[in-house]
TrEMBL record:
The active site is at 23 (proton donor). The keyword S-adenosyl-L-methionine does not apply. It comes from Anoxybacillus andreesenii. This is Nucleoside triphosphate/diphosphate phosphatase. PANTHER family: PTHR39159, UPF0374 PROTEIN YGAC. Belongs to the Ntdp family. Its EC number is 3.6.1.15, 3.6.1.6. Residues 18-156 form the DUF402 domain. Mg(2+) 1 binds at residues 87, 103, 107. It catalyses: a ribonucleoside 5'-triphosphate + H2O = a ribonucleoside 5'-diphosphate + phosphate + H(+); a ribonucleoside 5'-diphosphate + H2O = a ribonucleoside 5'-phosphate + phosphate + H(+). The keyword Hydrolase applies. Mg(2+) 2 binds at residues 105, 107, 120, 123.
Length: 176
């Protein structure tokens, strides 16, 4: 697997289990790139949906992807604090073209006070049946929901105090 270079822009491609593209983020700046971890930053980047619709992100975000963990985390920096959007997903790969992962529908939204909601359970169940997720994938994802909740409660990884601020400062050095 290629390793994205720090300071370089990359695309992020989200797929569904059936191999169809789900969403593309046009440009994210790599802040840290290793075989196992990619941390990126973006602000007002163009996002293209599977149906061709486009929209632009509203706030700066720090993105956390790991090659061994079945979720990714986006910390969105807003006026009233940091909101996190966590996607239950396959571990990422980077093939030189883009950082890629499979989105498995379940999401956790975390608020600045660190309360959180599990989202899209109905969509997950529908897609699990339609796309015939293997039982092992179902088990992995449910275990990773629990792992992600532990990370939130323990303030681990991107949920640690100052994590987003530190990486956002790094992101700003590339924007100047």
């Amino acid at each position: 697997m290629d390793v994205p270079l720090e300071g370089e822009p990359i695309q992020i491609h989200s797929y569904k289990h059936n191999g169809h593209i789900h969403r593309i983020w046009e440009e994210t700046t790599v802040l840290k790139g290793t075989q196992n971890l990619v941390i990126g930053g973006n602000d007002r980047t163009i996002v293209t949906e599977s149906d061709g619709r486009t929209w632009v992100t509203r706030e700066p975000a720090i993105c956390y992807f790991h090659s061994q963990i079945w979720f990714n985390i986006i910390g969105m920096i807003r006026e009233d604090g940091i909101y996190y959007y966590c996607n239950l997903s396959s571990p990422f790969i980077f093939d030189g073209e883009a950082l890629k992962y499979i989105d498995y529908d379940l999401d956790i939204k975390v608020y600045p006070d660190m309360t959180f909601n599990l989202l899209d359970e109905d969509e997950y169940e529908r897609h699990r049946k339609e796309m015939k997720y293997p039982e092992v994938i179902d088990q992995i994802l449910k275990a990773n929901v629990d792992k992600l909740i532990r990370w939130i409660r323990q303030r681990k990884g991107p949920f640690a105090p100052d994590f987003i601020d530190i990486w956002y400062e790094r992101y700003l050095t590339y924007r100047r």
